[in-house]
Amino acid sequence: MSDAAAPGLAALSGDDILKEGGDARVGRAAPEVREFALGSDSFRPAERLTGLERMGEKIARSLRTVIEPFVQVRTQVSAVPLSTRTFDDWLESQPHLISLSHYRLQPMKGGMLIAVPAEFVAALIERFYGGAGGPSGNAGKRTEFSASEELLLARLLEKLSAIMVEAWREVSPVEASLVQRETSRFHIRFVRPDDQVVVQNFAIHPAEGAPATITVLYPLAMLRPIEEQMAKRIHDEAPTGNTAWRSMLAEALSEVALPVRSILARPEISLQRLMTLKPGDVIPIQIAPRTPLLVASRTIAEGQIGEQDGRAALLVERIG
To answer: What's the pLDDT score for residue 43?
Structure first.
């Protein structure tokens, strides 16, 4: 075709008016083009991870029974709605000192990361030994956990990982093995920085003391293939009838407060000496190798009396 326009036709540009079949349409600017990267599609956990959401509710109930003995007051634990972020983005929002424990969930293709804030651990220590459990004044200055905090943290993580394994057992039997535990966000290796992770937060609100959050992270790539199985299994095993009533009763009973006491010795003296006691008198006592821990008149545990961080403490050696 020659460069000259054919008779009856005008040369048209994208901004001209095109008349065809009597229908006039004004040329419009090209629509906005947005870049798209494969694998970065929007993901709404509330719609796709219903199984994990329901699992979180059961985990929250179990967490309360673990945390209350540490804080020694009634505590509410609730599962926060799930969210997804890149791992690097989540790490950037964490403090410099934090307990990060990476567990492999075998035989699944992935694992979980349990994050416990340093301030929460410090509050547990203070509360456990009779303090108020409030926020510490040197929150931004600490660079490592104390020896007492490390011991308490080890006990807490052992119970937390056991709760997670038990919750996953309803979907598929798993074993949790510790891969790495770090106290700095700069050293943990969980997934690649740009990988998507599912963030499951558990909000902790003790009746006395500051609130806190324990976080569990899962690789999104691990959950997607098994979400349908998770949702179906947990839905099929949802409590109904008597099972639901028993669950509510057990939850109510778990909040009953019981006075706990310990007896160092039971010396016996005559009534005559008792009537003549005066300041400065000495009564010989014999302390048993193990000191009992009593609820009412029943011995529930035995241990040794000692000292930790300047406070008297009981090291439990035997339960029952």
So the answer is: 46
* 177-180 contact pairs (CB < 8 A, 24+): 177/103, 177/104, 177/106, 178/101, 178/102, 178/103, 179/102, 179/103, 179/104, 179/111, 180/101, 180/102
pLDDT level of residue 186 (50, 70, 90 thresholds): confident
pTM here? 0.59
Residue 189 sits at the vertex; the CA angle it makes with 186 and 195, to the nearest 5 degrees, is 105
Alpha helices, DSSP H, located in the chain: 45-48, 50-71, 87-92, 118-128, 147-169, 220-223, 227-236, 242-253, 271-275
Query: What's the token pair of residue 269?
Result: 């003296």
Tell me the residue length of the chain.
Answer: 320
| 3-state DSSP helix/strand/coil % of the chain, to nearest 5 | 30, 30, 40
Residue labelled with tokens 């075998």: 106
Residue 262 · residue 293 · CB < 8 Å:
yes
Task: Say how many Å lie between the first and final Cα of the chain, rounded.
Answer: 99
pLDDT at 219: 93
Read off the amino acid at residue 302.
E
Q: Are 213 and 132 in contact (CB under 8 A)?
A: no
170-181: pLDDT as tens digits: 778 889 999 999
DSSP for residue 33 = P
Ordered domains of the chain (ranges, CATH) = 45-253 (3.40.1550.10), 260-319 (2.30.330.10)
Question: What whole-number distance in Å separates Cα of residue 164 and Cα of residue 68?
Answer: 18
